Amino acid sequence: MSAAPFVWFDFGGVLSPPLDELFLRYEQVAGIPVDLFKYAIAEVGAQYGLAPLAPIELALLDERAWVGKLHAVLRAKAPELDLSRSEPDFGRQWFAGHQVNGAVRDFAIELAENGTRVGVLSNNVVEWEPYWRTMIDLDDVLSALIDSCKVGFRKPDPEIFALAAERAGVDPRQCILVDDLAENCAAARESGWTAVRFRDAGQAIGEVREALERWPG
């Protein structure tokens, strides 16, 4: 086991643009109001007895089947809603035009160049990988990538934190998570990790720097 810190970055809302912005952009592109879209996502999750995005982030169904279920919920809730602009290849439509959070990406590269290993710990979807990995363009920088849809666990489940530490070859106490969701940060801390709640790039980068400066050794 290495004694050095290992910094894990979330994708959605950390390396990606803010999620609220992305939902608003999807409303503009697909014509589905944000509140209705989030309602449909939650309803499909509830069909599986899971959190809103869990069925697709755990690869329990593929992207097109998930979109079909979303559309069924939306038709039942709002029969007048025009769904013709909502494409079954959701990832391609969702990620079109997205750009990485440059400050966070640059920070990850800086850490790696200075000898701190970095990884991505993401709840994500099989069919979306070509889009988001190309967007962040960190394959040559990352020491580990843990993706919920490939490992069968998702944040905030404790199993994914244990698995991530094991894959990185570090004790959980050596892991620092940067994540925008309070529940994921809380779960990481319960698993022995340090966690930085991402609100904006400057704040999160500053808190990670402070944590690294205090690191023993």
Key structural traits:
217 residues; alpha/beta; 5-stranded parallel β-sheet
Characterization of this structure:
The chain has helices spanning 11-15, 19-30, 34-47, 54-57, 63-77, 90-95, 102-113, 129-136, 148-151, 158-168, 182-190, 201-213; strands at 6-9, 117-122, 144-147, 175-179, 194-197. The chain has 217 residues and is an alpha/beta fold. Helix 3 crosses helix 5. The relative contact order is 0.18.
Briefly characterize the structure.
The chain has twelve helices and five strands. The protein is an alpha/beta fold and 217 residues long.
- Ends: how far apart? 15 Å
Bin the helical content: 40-55%
The total of helices stands at 12
Mean pLDDT: 97
Q: What is the count of β-strands? A: 5
Write down the overall geometry: elongated
Largest sheet: 5 strands, parallel
Listing every helix as H and every strand as E from the N terminus to the C terminus, the arrangement reads EHHHHHHHEHEHHEHEH
Strand order of the largest sheet: 3-2-1-4-5
Strand-pairing-aware structural class: alpha/beta
Q: What percent strand?
A: 5-15%
Cα radius of gyration in angstroms:
18 Å
Extract low-pLDDT stretches: none
